[in-house]
Amino acid sequence: MGFKMGIVGLPNVGKSTLFNALTRTAAAQAANFPFCTIEPNVGEVAVPDARLDRLAAVAGSKQTIPTRMTFVDIAGLVKGASKGEGLGNQFLANIREVDAIAHVLRCFEDDDVTHVEGRVDPVADAETIETELMLADLESVEKRRAGLQRKLKGNDKDAAQQDRLLAAAQAALETGRPARSVTIDPEDARAWKMLQLLTSKPVLYVCNVEESSAASGNALSARVAEMAAAEGAASVVISARIEEEISQLDAEEASMFLSEMGLAEAGLDRLIRAGYALLHLETYFTVGPKEARAWTISAGTTAPRAAGVIHGDFERGFIRAETIAYDDFVTLGGEQKARDAGKLRAEGKTYVVKDGDVLHFLFNT
Question: What is the reported pTM?
């Protein structure tokens, strides 16, 4: 499982520049791992993880296969999108399909790039988009609650749960708060997610700064970071122009360019990691002579569910998971030496997989 992040933003904030840089980077990497462009506005990119290369080197794996992240360039957002302005309806449909929202905000001054609102204010821009999403959610919630009335009269338990959750969302939205501000009990988590409310999606604010501020940000990105912290959201600083330049270089040239700019890594790497943290995702590995491969799971996933990420038969016929911690695998020099040192553990159905675990699943067919 990877995850899908929608890139949104007002016109002229650098959203398309960022997405184009990302997809060119992905295309350049295609020789080393599976990559596809599903549609013109959808692309997949590898999740950077130095541990995978290290594991492959220790095991002598012929191939490395990173886990992947899907980016969706969601077009059509303008003021009034909730009422169908611009490509509003298409925008709203696309955003319901993503796991999280990367909200690109203009945090740079440039007289040659016109701002749609005639001023550079990333916090106000964020509020514009959030307002459109909340208005769309409120309209949806009201319609759905009205449609549940007949089932509620028949004492339908599922309808009662939906109505209760929709009422909680409506109360938040009517006071100007997004649906993600509602506290949801664990037993309601699945039903809540099925509602697909736009403002229930986790948000990562992407501060697009000028090249000279890519390393440490600027006053505008600092305001966004303060706003994100107050909301319990996340933010990351990136220069779309730098990413665009990096996307046209080979690995060695890109490394030199980043060094010259005073950057330890590409902004896209930071963006992906921030997205993983936002969604509480972790990585486990399968390692052998043919390939070393990374797999994405949610934090708290049990061993059978982790096995199911590879194939449903692995989960259904799960017997046990042979488990080696990443540090033990690397330090001791591979699976056999870890086994000899007593560092390979047999874990059962209740084991919660840890980030970095190297796993081998045994299952009945």
Answer: 0.82
